[in-house]
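Hey, can you fold this one?
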Amino acid sequence: MLTPAYKLKIGSKLVDTTDEPRASTVVDLRVVLDLDTPADGFTFVLGNVGTFRPAREDEVTVELGYAGEDLVLVMSGLVDSAEPSLTTLRLTGYGGAAPLLRSYLDQTFESKTAGEIVRDLADRAAVEIARAEDGIRFPAYVIDGRRSFWQHARELADLSGFDLYLDPEGKLVFERFAGGRTAHVLEYGKHILELEVLRTPARAGRVEAWGESPSASRGDQAWAWLTTDFKGSRGEAGDGALLLLERPALRTRLAAHTAAQAAFTEIQRRTLRGRLVILGRPQVRLGDSIRLKGLADEPLNTFFQVRRVVHRITKAGGFTTEIGFRAIEV
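Sure. Predicted structure:
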């Protein structure tokens, strides 16, 4: 029989149930990791016993698993609030994206790739980098104080067709999804407890991305000029109903083409999404894929990208993992 276990490091206090899984003051533990949400989050509800009084900004690490097995680090973050009641203590917090969400800058980067810009922003915010691919090269990209570092990094990821998230150690990942670093096989009647699937029409069949300089015909040094003929700096992908993508930073034909293809791929992948619940599996991470098997709906027996992971341990329900997923190939 699998007995859920966890190890929580909150400030200087360690809550460890690996030796005595039943000797736990935690009533409810929930960790949420999401590619479409800027900051991952956690919520712990503990029995209000002893003198333990965590403070805001206390560092937190969360390791989950089962008694008798090695635990897996699923998140690193900071306490945001501690709310005591007569019988419980409710802690909420967030992952390591906070410094990027709180940092602002006015600067123009010239002849830099998206990855180089993201690495610079992460360094300024004192956020470590796990992986950062290059992506689009921009003749110029303006970072302005109206948006945070995270919002600029999110735009650069969208234009390049990359994912942006923090790994369990709180390090930034900026890279293209290429099938997943790990593929988890989940079989109907064996692993899957719940399954919901949503199919929606594509909101566009064709994407056109427009730059605003004549650099495609007049050379790279013309990136700062404005043009009245946009044909040379237009990027296209797909065929059908049109979506226009206009971004001042797309000043070369190659950048516009890359952004158009990224937007088209995003639209197509969102036509098939879903969520499922399995017995707790802390090894499932953002950046992974899942392989569904044994489903009556045959087109679902394939690979999907993991977009959201919710780990939860409760006294009544045990340890479960909810996975939000979407299509890789449509």
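The chain has four domains: 4-95, 99-175, 183-200+270-327, 206-269. Let me know if you want another pass with a different chain boundary.
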